[in-house]
Amino acid sequence: MTVRDLIPVLVLVGLAALLPLVVTASPVLNFLVFMLIVALGAQGWNILGGFGGQFSFGHAAFFGTGAYATAILQLRWGVNAWAGLAAAVAAGGAVGWAIGFLSFRSGLRGSYFALVTLAFAEVFRILANAAPLTGGAAGLLIGLDVRPANLQFADRAVFYWLVLGFVAAVLVLTRWIQRSRFGAQLVAVRENEDAAKALGVDSLRVKLRAIALSGAVTALAGGLYAQYFLYIDANIAYGGWISVELLLAPIIGGVGTVFGPVVGALTLHGLGEVAKQFAGRIPGIDLIVFGTVLVLAVAFARGGILGLLERLRDRGVGMLPPSAKSRTAKEVPNAGR
């Protein structure tokens, strides 16, 4: 990976960092923070599902683990919020590795693996809804103590920049995966696992690394959610809604790409908010929008929004005269989405 590979990341993050200086309204900042948290979790899903081809229907298991780990460590044992967030990342990685070991060791793949992850998420939700440690059905309320040491800030913009920093770090991580030997092995397993094994790739080890990394990143999103909203319960932390959103964002934006989860999260939640403004507070209007966008993406943009844009660009280049084509190919190489 070279500095040139990071230029798109730096440009995107730099522009995003300027938003709170232009828009200061609290509802807008709340939307941006929530959208970035979803984008962060979707980046975690994309490592496993996009690069590795192991589609998960139950990433709420990792999101909820991160959220509960952060809250429980603070409320039950008085652990500092920053340390609790770090522990949440470790817990998410451990849960990911455990689920992966049980699933991949048994040879599960495709729809069978997807259903197993969904089952784990549902089991975690039921346990969290009943266990006294997690507050049962009442959930957990983190006390309001606005201090940077407690990961609570008086200005929402500060939390926005914090989440944006984590999103940027994972963008760099996914760019590295895309350019690394590990990433090549993941893609090989995704395309043809038997052929990858024949070439000497330890598919079990590769998939375990991917799901542990995916779980850690998704748990980070869960921990940030708990710390921002200061309340979680089983239906929030392990609910099916988060699994669906973390799955849809990369598919809409561009599965297996670096920026796809961010583009998808922005598209889904942006359109959802626009629909709410025009349609009023109709229950489930955002879900209708999500479903419509998914159908359109599957029907007309198999590679997501980024894939569609790339095809349109290639079609535009194809209409140029030969001399302009060669010049464009030299000046605008594939930037690596």
Description:
- The protein is mainly α.
- It has one domain.
- Helices cover 75% and strands 1% of the residues.
- It has helices at 3-17, 19-22, 26-51, 60-77, 81-104, 111-130, 156-179, 181-191, 193-198, 203-229, 234-237, 240-253, 260-279, 285-300, 304-318, 322-331; strands at 140-141, 231-232.
- Strands 1-2 form a two-stranded antiparallel sheet.
- Helix 3 crosses helix 12 and helix 3 packs across helix 13.
- The chain is globular and about 55 Å long.
- 43% of the residues are buried.
- Residues 327-335 have low confidence and may be disordered.
List keywords for this structure.
337 residues; mainly alpha; 75% helix; disordered C terminus
What topology does this entry show?
Blueprint: H1 3-17, H2 19-22, H3 26-51, H4 60-77, H5 81-104, H6 111-130, E1 140-141, H7 156-179, H8 181-191, H9 193-198, H10 203-229, E2 231-232, H11 234-237, H12 240-253, H13 260-279, H14 285-300, H15 304-318, H16 322-331
Antiparallel strand pairs: 1-2
Strand content: under 5%
> What string gives the helices and strands in order?
HHHHHHEHHHHEHHHHHH
Q: What's the number of extended β-strand segments?
A: 2
What oligomeric state best describes the polypeptide chains here? Answer: single chain
Radius of gyration, in Å, reads 20 Å
Kindly state the percentage of residues in helix.
Answer: over 70%
Largest beta sheet: strand ordering: 1-2
Mean pLDDT: 89
Form type: globular
Low-confidence stretches: 327-335
N-C termini distance: 14 Å
Biggest sheet details: 2 strands, antiparallel
- Helical stretch count? 16
Structural class: mainly alpha
Tell me the domain tally.
1
